[in-house]
Specification:
arginine biosynthesis bifunctional protein fold, 24% strand, 11-stranded mixed sheet, two-stranded parallel ribbon, Ubiquitin-like (UB roll), 258 residues, alpha+beta, 6 helices
């Protein structure tokens, strides 16, 4: 049971920074939302989980007593980095995982619609099976974008990339795209799928992990697990997704077969 809104897990991070209790309570929620609350495995929210952020206050640095304190952003960035690594490990440590796919959605009118497109792609069983098979099936990616629920989406303005290869634009397959290029990208263990909606200039919230020059990005990542050698694939058992909400939103996941 691993899905946004925590997961079946116990997470602990400790710091010696001197922080007031209200600020610590704010930090733990913000850090969780940018890391552990971005994990989805099977679509079921866990009934029991904990993420605990502890501060000993033993540091000689000045007390952080508000989110406007000069050290707040630096501390938050460090905590998010640690939490993100731990959260990604839940997916990356999956037995037999062979691929890690990052899906970046940008140029939306809002954080919400970029997030919706990212999740639609990352949660699609057909998209994930295409990754598993190293099959550059553009139709599955475009279909997921289409049913993401973005109102008035103009497909003629949208762009779709596999790594740096532009595969779809102007409402159809890009004329320069070659199937061999798609196959070359899909054969890699780590792949970036980039969707440019070209419908807005929404940017991520300001913060230590935010680049002021980037448009809003929503980034799902998927890890794919191969079936044991010699065993037939019977059915899709579960799908692991991981999302990191920073300057981007990242989703990662693993296909498990049995």
């Amino acid at each position: 049971m691993i899905h946004p809104n925590m997961a079946t897990m116990l997470g602990f991070i400790a710091t010696d920074a001197a922080i007031t209790r209200p600020v610590l309570e704010q930090l733990v929620k913000e850090v969780a939302d940018l890391s552990f609350n971005c994990i989805s495995v099977d679509g079921d929210t866990s009934t029991n989980d904990s993420f605990i952020l502890m501060s000993t206050g033993q540091s000689q640095a000045p007390l952080i007593d508000s989110n406007q304190h000069p050290a707040y952003a630096t501390l938050k960035a460090a905590l998010v980095d640690v939490a993100t690594e731990l959260a990604q490990a839940i997916v990356r440590d999956g037995e037999g995982a062979t691929k890690f796919i990052t899906v970046t959605v940008e140029g939306g009118r809002s954080v919400s619609e970029c997030k919706d497109v990212a999740y639609a792609i990352a949660r699609s069983p057909l998209v994930k099976t295409a990754f598993f098979a190293s099959d550059p099936n553009l139709g599955r990616l475009l279909c997921a974008i289409g049913y993401a629920g973005v109102n008035d989406l103009d497909v003629d303005r949208m762009e779709l990339y596999l790594d740096d290869v532009l595969v779809a634009a102007n409402g159809g397959r890009h004329p320069d795209y070659q199937e061999e290029d798609g196959q070359r990208v899909m054969a890699k263990p780590e792949i970036t799928v980039r969707v440019v909606l070209n419908r807005g200039e929404a940017r991520p919230p300001s913060g230590p992990a935010t680049s002021p020059t980037t448009t809003l990005k929503s980034t799902p990542t998927t890890a794919v697990e191969r079936p044991p050698s010699g065993k037939p694939v019977k059915r899709l058992a579960s799908a692991n997704l991981f999302v990191v909400l920073r300057a981007c939103k990242t989703v990662s996941g693993a296909l498990k077969w049995q």
